[in-house]
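Suppose you are handed a protein chain with no further information: no name, no annotation, nothing but its sequence. What can you learn? This example shows the usual starting point.
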Amino acid sequence: MIGYHIRPLAPEALTSIQDRFLHALAEAGRAADHHLLLFSAEDESAEIDSVGRLHRGGAADAFVLYDLTADDRRPKALLDMGVPFVAFGRTDAGADTYPWVDVDNVLGTRLAVDHLVNRGHRRIAFLGWPSGRTIGDRRARGWHQAVESHRLASACGVLDARSEDSVQAAIQVTFRLLEHSEPPTAIVTATDTLAVGAMQAAQRWGLEVGRDLAVVGFDDTPTAAALELSSIRQPIELVGQQVVAALLGTDEAGPGHQLLEPQLVIRSSSARPARPRR
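A reasonable first move is to predict its three-dimensional structure. Written in structure tokens, the prediction is:
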């Protein structure tokens, strides 16, 4: 039995990557004749306490940690308790002390910028989460690295915008980007939720998404496919398989640290060449 703390959905988000991961984890576990024990907890401390009780009582043999923060206390706590686990994600420090599987979020936004540069865009904005959130910070880092590598830092540096992960918040922040004296011709976002807000803002501004403004999201949710939104797809099914393999000791990758590559899915929101704007 594999224990997993299920987190509440963000009320403003269009969908959650946790849904896909939970399904992938259950499928991979079933294939290995293991099953999931889901539990809830109010906060990080409560989750650690629950893990200890469930493991001591024999209800779960091992655990999967999800959505790690930069200074997450859970890995060290479980190591100290002697509880077997694998993390989906990793901390900024101490990640060499425990097994994890993660997706290269830095590479994801780099792929998005490279694609837009190849389409002729030179003013590429980033719409991400406020600083201090591990995944969001890594996605922002990828955008920064990419615009610097393409020598676009001077043109794009003022186009770094942050928003809470909701459509309405993204609309307001996108309006501010479009009000800039030299507005972006393309926007890379940290989530598909933010991308939908950017698309709605563009339409209200009188722009046609894909022609006047390119938009690329992140996570490739069902919403992205429905709205013809280009997006970065995480290999969640593979993550689930590798997490279970690491838990069961059948992982052939070696040290228990796996950084998987995401994929850019191109749709009409960014497929056309850049259109010059005055």
